[in-house]
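Hey team,

Filing this mostly as a record. A colleague (T.K.) asked me to run one chain through the structure pipeline before their review meeting, and I want the input and output archived in the tracker in case anyone asks later how it was produced. No errors, nothing strange. Just documentation.

Input sequence:
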Amino acid sequence: GVWHGVNTLRIREAMDPAGVLTGVDPFPPGRLGFSIPRFIALSESARSSNGRLRLVRKTSREAALRWTEPVDFLFIDGDHTYDGLRTDWNSWRPHVVIGGIVCLHDSHPTPARPIHDAGRVRFTDEVILPDPRYQVVEVVETLTVLRRLE
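Output structure:
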């Protein structure tokens, strides 16, 4: 998810200048008939001109079903439930190239954020971490960073 574009901006600032960053979020319209978070995200992510930004206004699953490009960096930060991460993981995992990096937001508890029972943490522990096709590179705060192996 992109939501307000804060992480999108951080990724854009750090990415290869020749790269393309695709943010996926349905940005549902609010009571006024348009998505205020979408306008905030566009404004926030425009604070960097590094690389090229493309926003896809679909759910993660809808976007992944039509996706045809290889993914070398995947940041999953959408639905934080067990089923939400399962959907994101199963939808996008096949697109990640060998050697590609996957970052899972709010997937690891910390003393400051004891989210042991969160669905996202349980799915990460039960399904993703045991997957031999992925190796943990680093855990930073609640973020789990993985590399896809051959």
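Quick notes for T.K.: The chain is about 30% helix and 25% strand. Helices lie at 6-14, 36-45, 60-65, 82-92, 119-128.
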